[in-house]
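User: quick one, fold this
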Amino acid sequence: MPADSDEDNATRARIVRAAEKLFSEKGFHGTGMSDIERSVRLGRGAIYYHIGNKEALLFDITIRRIEKLNTYADEVLALAVEPAAKARLLARAIVRDIAEHEHATRIFYREWQWLTGDNRERVVAAADRFEQAWVRILDEGAADRSLVARRRLTVKGVLGLFNSIYLWYDPAGPMGPDEIADELVDLLLDGLRTLS
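Assistant:
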């Protein structure tokens, strides 16, 4: 099969961007192929040629988000720095991704459950892999006694803290992505108790 031309790649990217905005605003089930057609001013045949069906679009959007984070997690895990520094770097990656990909992030967190079959399995496996990166960081910290031992819900709680940011993040707000990540990591590392 011949490689896609630059024009094909540009058209596909335009379709994906339009779908991201529509799925983010209207939801996966609230968006019809006709909405996408109107948004990109292409006929249904052209859209199917470039992306396949609507679920293929949803899969493409969600898998790109989590695979990007997994790539960064692999880089962070390979660093020779203390576990708390790794946690900070990974937290910054999450918040930056939310800030840079508003629509795709919202889709990832709210719409992925509509995926079926192999598409769903691949996204769940990729999300599990990202969760395991956090497990490794926290277990490294427990092993060198820089962090407390991980409890059963620790990773779910940490990820829940960061994964909810898309609900309230404001790009025009007073704090940038790294500042938000750092403040939340400080909260996790220092806790809420005052020293007595």
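User: anything notable?
Assistant: The domain at 55-190 is CATH 1.10.357.10 (Tetracycline Repressor; domain 2).
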